[in-house]
Amino acid sequence: MNQTPPNPARRRLLNATGMAALAAASGRLLAQTTPRPLLIVSSWEISGLSPAASGYIFTRLQVTETLLGSRDDGTPEPALAGRWQVSADGLEWRFELRPGARFHDGSPVSAQAVLHSLERVRTPPGLLATVPIRSMDAPDGKTLRIRLRSPFVLLGSVLAHSSTMILAPASFDAKGTVREVIGSGPYRVAKLEAPHQVETRVSEYYDSPRPAIGAVRYMAAGRAETRALMAESGQADLAWNLDPASITRLRSRNAVGISSVTLPRTLAVSLNAGIPGLSDVRVRRALSLSIDRAGISRALLREQDLAATQLMPPTLAGWHEPSLPPLTRDPATAARLMREAGWTASPAGWRDAKGQLLELRLQTFPDRPELPVLAAALQAQWREAGFAVKVSIGNSGDIPLAHRDGSLQMGLAARNYAMLPDPTGTLAQDFAPNGGDWGPAGWSSPIVSDALQKLLRGGLTPDEQRAERRRILLALQQELPVIPVCWVRAHVAVNRRLEGVRLDPLERSFRLTEMRWKA
Amino acid sequence: MSPRHLLHWRGVLLRRALQIVALLLIIGSASFLMVRSLPGDMAMRVAASRYGYDFVGQAAAGAVSQALQLQRPLWQAWLDWFSDLLRLDLGESLVSGEPVWHEIAHHLGASIDLAVVTLLLAVLIGLPLGIAAAWRPGGLADRFMLLFAVTLRATPAFLLGILLMLLLAVHWGVLPAAHDDQGGTLWLPALTLALGLAAGLARISCSALREALASPACEFARSKGLTDLQVLIRHAFRLAALPVLAYLGVHLVLLVEGTVVVESLFAWPGLGHALVHAVFARDVPVIQGAALSLGLVFILFNLLLDTLMLAIDPRQRKPGASDA
């Protein structure tokens, strides 16, 4: 069949005529004639209004701002704070707010208002709760001062995270619960229907140039097929979280443009190095050597170059070390390592000296559609190499829970290493000596801990920072407490009428202010 | 209305009222106990739904557990729920913090919109087809109806939905592919559901009408000298209406309650979809609220159906007749 462009006139005609009787039953049947807003569709539902819950949706939609922003490489840049200074001892940070900034209710963004907002997100799981804050105050109307108990170089990154987005005092009720999202970004909320959709309009109080796109509608659609067809039919202008099959189809039909960006996110298996079998690095290496990453990348992700050769992708330049020996597939070496480690091959799988079978459980969850399929592929590849692996698909909370109760064996997730723009924070959490929620369990390395501590303390020259990062990456590559499988690339279907689409590799913003409709 | 009719109606209403009270207690408590006794950590599940998978962890679960007082004994939590219920307060969603009434009203409204339009479309498509098929058994319409009914009943709603999206939204560009609040978005999900329903309706109405036309009542009418068309309109339709109404009544309830697949395919914000989400998230108040609303809808629809049946069929008004 040939692709015909959507015909709005025909659509309106069909909707508006001949349906009057049924229209009486429901207003949803009538087509709207006003110019439609830019429609973004993705899988992320608006699960609540608190900054920790859905703050990332409102910051991406540029409704709210954070004190600091982030460049693509993770370094901080001005946002709501036009300038900032850190004292020589790293214990006092001062932020000067943009002078003309106003909230969407017209009130000025004062230091007191920012303080009010930040005080309300100092509880877990907001990331500000992890900062050793001694005090926060406002020495004058436009300056915010944060004093720390100990130096914390990641404060800039934390203040660029959506869980610290700044809301107007009128957003909160008396108990401190967010009742309305009143931010200071270029767009204000015009209509909110959680969890499915939110509509925004340009804010009349925004102090920078007016964006070309005047109205935006964001909606959550759970199924990837739906999102792809919405994009293909011209209904959605930007469709996120597309599945590989839909991307191939959209590319072949050329109906929409596809923009792509490699994310600082890795599909990786976290291991419990504290259990028999996995405590031996040779077994962990054998598991890694049994994985056909190129095959998985080609067949499941439909991409040629996403097979992970190390933990971080090349796009995360500061954290990708080209000199590391790449992770490869080598079944013969894997079998040799297993035999050296004292395991004997049997039809059921590898057995130890006592005849005990090495049986492993791989946990994952379906929040990203590729995860269950990837788990099945890994299970098949490991079975070929003699590993008996059971796959368990549950809720995303099951992996942190298994960490807590010690039952984790292997957990497959798409870990976002730039949850804070600087990956040091996530790495410090994952590779902490007692194990983080998403990192390995039962594993610690003095080299990694020491290097992370030095990076967190700050005061290093760029060369020293590079050397510390290399120590960390080398130790992780050799010890394999986490087995990287593939890197992740985000693909977005873009309406051909739209231009200026530039994807954010740190997934912080949709960058709507840079977009415009083609003339 | 005669005293005998009033007595009959009082019986029907009293029975339904008792059913509603029993339903509140049984469904509410059962869904509460079932969700609370599921394996796995409830705080972690709620945290995963509330904060997303990048953010879920022990800190998030701890915060959820504390805020929602999940450490309370089960009986205490149940008593709190029950006393709230007596005040007609269904509580707040554990995930969004919104009042459950507010969420249920939003989703139930969308589900009812979809169900009503589906039903009207199904009647518009299925009834004429069934009547035409019954009018000339073995004729073209009869054979077409059989093909239509078998094909559509055998096609899963998910597949039918995607095919309709491809045809009407992508290739012809006449309808929006999924719900986006822009208007016109109800057609595709309603059509997807209506085609399956119309297939069944065509078969039911065809066989009911054939049975009615062959009944002694219609035979007698013809012997009075009425034409076939007069018999059909004056007598057979009314006789055939009972099984057709019963079929539509049951399916209307199923449409409100059981359209999860179609709702999620078309991103329709209906109650079935919301209920499935709430189950994944262990959002107990929403599950209870949704289960109660669905139960109430079931009882009210049945009451409505009883009324219609009673209005159409004088035989049911005799003493001792069933009130369904």
Automatic annotation (TrEMBL), chain A:
InterPro entries: Peptide/Ni-bd, SBP_5, SBP_5_dom, TAT_signal. Keywords: Signal. Residues 1-31 form the signal peptide. PROSITE patterns: TAT. Pfam families: SBP_bac_5 (PF00496). The keyword Signal applies. The keyword Transmembrane does not apply. It comes from the Bacteria. Residues 75-431 form the Solute-binding protein family domain. PANTHER family: ABC TRANSPORTER SUBSTRATE-BINDING PROTEIN (PTHR30290:SF83), PERIPLASMIC BINDING COMPONENT OF ABC TRANSPORTER (PTHR30290). This is ABC transporter substrate-binding protein. It comes from Uliginosibacterium paludis. The lineage of its organism: Bacteria, Pseudomonadati, Pseudomonadota, Betaproteobacteria, Rhodocyclales.
TrEMBL record, chain B:
The chain crosses the membrane at residues 12-35, 114-135, 147-174, 186-204, 244-266, 286-312. It is found in: Cell membrane. Its main location: membrane. Gene3D superfamilies: MetI-like (1.10.3720.10). CDD domains: TM_PBP2. It is a multi-pass membrane protein. Residues 108-309 form the ABC transmembrane type-1 domain. The keyword Coiled coil does not apply. Keywords: Cell membrane, Membrane, Transmembrane, Transmembrane helix, Transport. It comes from the Bacteria. PANTHER family: DIPEPTIDE TRANSPORT SYSTEM PERMEASE PROTEIN DPPB-RELATED. This is ABC transporter permease. It comes from Uliginosibacterium paludis.
